[in-house]
Amino acid sequence: MTEPVWQPRGPWRVLVAPGWERPGFGEILERLGFLLEKSSAPLAPPGRHRVDRLALPCGGETLDAVVKTYGLQSAWFDRRAARIGSKAERAFRNALLLRAAGVGTPTPVAVAERWEGDRLRESRFVAAFVPGLTDLREELNRIYAQAPRCAPLMDLLQAVADAVRGLHDAGLLHRDLGNQNVGLRRDPADPAAPWQVCFLDLNRARQVAAPTPAQRGADLARLDLPSDFRRVFHAMYYRGYSPPPEFAEAERRVRAAFDRHTALRPWRHPFREARLRRAAAGQKTPLRGREIWIWDDRSAQAIPAYAAKDRRKYLPAANVTAALRHVVKHGLAVRRATRALLAQSFRTPVPFAGAIGLALDADPATWTRQLEWLGRLQGARKLPLLLRLCHHQGPDAWQWTLDQALHLHRQGHGVALALVQDRRAVREPKGWRQMVTLAFDRAHTFADFFEIGHAVNRSKWGVWDYREYLRLLDPVRASLIQYPEAKIVGPACIDFEPHALAALLELLPRDLPFHALSQHLYVDRRGAPENFQGPFDLVGKAALLRAHARVHGFADDRLVVSETNWPLQGTGVWSPVTSPYETRDPRQNDPSVSEEDYAAYLARYYLLALASGHVSRVYWWRLAARGFGLIDDTDPAAWRPRPAFHALLALLHHVGDATFAQKLETPPDEFALEFARPDGTPVVARWTLAGAPEYS
Fold this sequence. Notes:
The protein is of the alpha/beta class and 696 residues long. It folds into 3 domains: 7-128; 134-268, Transferase(Phosphotransferase), domain 1; 309-655, TIM Barrel, CATH 3.20.20. It is 39% helix and 20% strand. An 8-stranded parallel barrel has the order 16-17-18-19-20-21-22-23, surrounded by 5 helices. Strands 1-2-6-7-5-4-3 form a 7-stranded antiparallel sheet, with helices on both faces. Helix 22 (595-611) packs parallel to helix 23 (643-655).
């Protein structure tokens, strides 16, 4: 490519990109100022620089152009521009470099400058207009506010990460890589087409033969992403691996400096910032901080936007103080109750009929097939089932789910409904009230219970301040006044976090009659269900949670485990522990298990939790799911039952209608539970920590 050279034209000089040397075009560039005043359309609010769209005559054709007019600058910057090139020239030459390297940027066309001695009086950069161009800032705001789904977010981040990597590999550091300078475009005829990325505002960019990891990290520091999305973005940039330490340190250091610089901007430019605030006063504020909430269909969960350190910044002290108040007021009573309940473990008969529950996915596309496999699993027995009513899915999905719940009830199933919040339910309570009211109106006559809230001790599910959970209870109170026979359970904490449960119980209104305490009692990070977390194994955890229910006067002091499972090895982003992005680094503290261990743990979990007497029902999450289900639904045309499916089938066959009678004496690492079948014949479930139960 021939390097463009300056062409003097009276008081002006112009640079024209190869292929744009057209007759009379130089004269047109001299008259840019006149043409802009006559017929341009501004593309950005007035500021230091001006950006206009202009129909520009060019060699007998009309060029749809963008003209950026740079503002006047100090004499020092003019002297610098004379030495290294003006902003317009640098933007032009950097754009030529990127185009030659196959990196996206609007087609550079020309530069026009007017100097008076050593002062730069006018400077303009001309590029081809890109129709349908948005930017990363706009697209992220659209996803956060209108379509909070993980898959399109990951696709967007991957496209941008690949493009930035291409930018750096081409030997260019952008040095102003904010979200607004990452242009994005899609084929308007194909909204699902890959994103086309082009880089804008290249005047600060600097050519570097081989950028170091530290230079790359520093260049990425201005991208505005929540910290966990930023972690994912950096791994995408490094082709699936975590970045090297020098990259991470440079990115962190420059980011901190830029944040300080931004915070001081109102003091440095008070009048300009005041003008910008006035201009933005009537505009809708983009979602930030706590308000960012993203759903992942693959793992069937919300994903965290922030790393743990940053999440703590948004958590209120009131969460902690509520837990402390509970310890002071009820700690001794809970401790005594726990001791008493532990002493009663496995001491009383426990009917298993109606205690072994299962969750289904309320998905119209797979519903018929789920029911077919449910029939194979349960036979003539009708398992208690749990369905989620997810606020983010909207009224049509709520109605459909309630239709299926009624149908299952008429078939003889006990049906429970879990009411799952998102952040919008907290921010805009009208929609949440609509869902709660609809659920109670349609299902109060047959629902086993309504679980109010979901994993409320995990901020990614939308509740940051536990007092926000109380606001979710407001429409529940109104529905219970209308339907006093309806039963509610909660607060549905996830994992074993007694401090979080204590805080929530301390805040719960005493006039709201919770029937039972529900818990998503995962023990997966400890491995086998018999393993200990501190002094608590699964039975000990259930006893402690039950003690809380007893102390707080729940109608049924036994625990409802409304969700549990183990994540499966090799299932990638469909697993809850590797969503939303799986790096290629060796995994640390990975609770994922083999399909064989999953099957063994499932049976042992049901047996221990229910036979202990502390748990009234366990719902396994869920029948079909690629990353954690009893059935692998990876192939839509050929679902595969996993060993866990057969393990649950065996459990139901042997003890599904039996009554637990006693725990037999065994060596320390062996377990034996005796049951009595309805006809009086005994059956014993035996296992070791190395395998699945055997029934005899």
